[in-house]
Amino acid sequence: MLSVNGLRKSYGQLEVLKGISLSVREGEVISVIGASGSGKSTFLRCLNLMETPSAGHLEFENFSLDFESGARRQPTSRQLCELRTRIGMVFQSYNLWPHKTVLENVIEAPIHVRKMSRREAIEQAEGLLGRIGLYEKRGSYPSKLSGGQQQRVAIARALAMSPKVMLFDEVTSALDPELVGEVLSLMSSLAAEGMTMLIVTHEMAFARDVGTRTLFFDQGVVAEDGPPAEIIGNPRSDRLRQFLRRVVHDPAQLGPSA
Ligand code: ADP
Ligand code: MG
Question: Which residues form a coiled coil (predicted)?
Fold first, then answer.
């Protein structure tokens, strides 16, 4: 449903993504691991075209886009906008609008981008907030919510656009440890419902247990790609073993495989 071929991204002289080819099937839940600076965030941003790749090809729904300069199928700005609404993204910093209530945060894009009626948007938002257990908070401002609650609202806000794919970039990294679980469990339930997702995370047990597939990013390439239990449980390359030793100080912390 979403594929890229030979995707590259440079910032000036620095080549951050060095030719990534990947095909994502509907319903796949892909955990993305790798050291800081390996290009994971840049990759997600290129997938929903918040960043324009320097080269490569992307296919998604009815889009077929080439990024080489001078290529025939360069995306128009209208295509970029449309594509971004079809691929949801959630970040480490929740980026909720502080001067809007929870409900207003969730209905904003459906009304202004999707041209949904206010009434329909509210109905949908209330349903989503109910599902994530935050219906009672619909009239509150983000500052009155815990970090975990704010992050769940940010996820609901992305879901309100009915995306085909959801991208998560270290969404629990800024949270206090006791709030991580509620956000991970929301992502697990989305996965169980069949949402197609790419999840950049440093939570190795989660990466191993939620995903149907794991990618290990190393210096701008996908160095390993396979079933989570194999990639994380039985790493083949020295680089991946080193990485796992660094992020998982105590291997017992990973616990038994689910
Ligand atoms: P990761 O998410 O794996 O930590 P990033 O994709 O954030 O990695 O960054 C990969 C590399 O690209 C880093 O060296 C980073 O400094 C560089 N980089 C990321 N964004 C930009 C930017 N907007 N301008 C210049 N360099 C960038
Ligand atoms: Mg990152």
Answer: none
How many Å apart are CA 223 and CA 216, to the nearest integer? 6
Enumerate residues lining ligand 1, CB below 6 A: 11, 14, 16, 34, 36-42
Whose CA is closest to 74, among 92, 94, 56? Answer: 56
Architecture per CATH, domain 24-41+170-257, reads as 3-Layer(aba) Sandwich (3.40)
Domain boundary assignment for the chain: 24-41+170-257, 95-164
184 CB-near residues (< 8 Å, 6+ apart): 172, 203, 206, 210
CA–CA separation, 218 and 43 (whole Å): 12
Q: Closest Cα to residue 53, out of 18, 1, 95?
A: 18
Nearest to 62 by CA among 83, 87, 89, 76: 83
pLDDT digits (tens, 9 = 90+) for 158-201: 999 999 999 999 999 999 999 999 999 999 999 999 999 999 99
To test the ligand 1 pocket, which listed residue (8, 15, 16, 239) has its Cβ within 8 A of the most ligand atoms?
Answer: 16
